[in-house]
Amino acid sequence: MDNIKEKFQNVMKKRDQYSVESPEWNNLNEQKADLLEAMKPSTKENIIYFEEKDMDFIKENFDELKYIPNIPFKVDRRSILEYHPNKRHPIPYCIIRYEDKYFFILRESGSGEIRLIGKKGLIGGHIGDEDVIENNLSKTIENGLIREFEEEIGETKDIIKNISLKGVIKSNNGVDADHLGLLYEIEVDKDDIKAAEKGVLKGIWIDKADLPNHYDSFESWSQIAYTQILSKN
């Protein structure tokens, strides 16, 4: 594995010497994708993405929106799209609320997202090709949102009372530069839910009044969600 990581780092350095999407850059990006899939098999999935040029109208950090903008989308290998400066993948990022408390995911030692172990975040994930409704971005996003909800907390959509879009998170910092966060609030009708991956993700409920005490342990997007939405509710 260490040898693969070293090859990955070398390919990334070589790729950065060329203009983005030049023939040389694309060839090295294919090599990067193969190495990334060897290191992280989950990146073999096909996901939807947007062209960066089609999102210039979205403000950085947080942009309050009540509906999904009509952005053209395509599907490609996640491994091709990772670390690609011209393409960004949408991630539904969901505030789950029951009355006056909120559901967070605590990433435990078994999490593959090493940089996030010990951090608290909201549920979310990529929109796969299985979620796609041709020429219907809103329905495609909704399909992915519901699928992630059911997978990550082990419940069906029947417990959902209401879903509302709150805004968009757009950051150019580190790994966030690959993603466009679509921040939703999901109201549920019970609080006896938990994360579905034992040893990897642990579900916890936090009372609204106690949220400020957890701020420093929130993931970056959760901090934005708290500042822009939760602290104002």
Explain the layout of strands and helices.
Elements: H1 2-15, H2 23-39, E1 46-51, E2 61-63, E3 74-77, H3 78-81, E4 87-98, E5 101-107, E6 120-121, E7 123-124, H4 137-153, E8 160-170, E9 179-188, E10 201-207, H5 220-228
Parallel strand pairs: 4-9
Antiparallel strand pairs: 1-3, 1-4, 2-8, 4-5, 4-7, 5-6, 5-10, 8-9
Helix pairs in contact: 1-2
Structure description:
- With 233 residues, the protein is an alpha+beta fold.
- It folds into 2 domains: 39 residues; 182 residues, Nucleoside Triphosphate Pyrophosphohydrolase (Alpha-Beta Complex).
- Helix content is 26%, strand content 27%.
- The protein has 5 helices and 10 strands.
- Strands 1, 2, 3, 4, 5, 6, 7, 8, 9 and 10 form a 10-stranded mixed sheet that branches.
- The longest helix is centred in the first third of the chain and has 17 residues.
What is the gist of this entry?
The chain contains 5 helices and 10 strands. The chain has helices at 2-15, 23-39, 78-81, 137-153, 220-228; strands spanning 46-51, 61-63, 74-77, 87-98, 101-107, 120-121, 123-124, 160-170, 179-188, 201-207. The relative contact order is 0.17.
Share of β-strand residues: 25-35%
- How many helices? The count is 5
CATH class of the largest domain: Alpha Beta
Distance between the termini: 46 Å
Give the overall silhouette: globular
Q: How many domains make up the 3D coordinates?
A: 2
Could you name the ranges where pLDDT drops below 50 across 5 or more consecutive residues?
none
Characterize the biggest β-sheet.
10 strands, mixed
Let me know the number of strands.
Answer: 10
> What value does the average pLDDT take?
90
Calculate Rg over CA atoms.
Answer: 18 Å
Helix and strand content put the structural class at alpha+beta
Q: Share of helix among residues?
A: 25-40%
CATH superfamily of the largest domain, please? Answer: Nucleoside Triphosphate Pyrophosphohydrolase
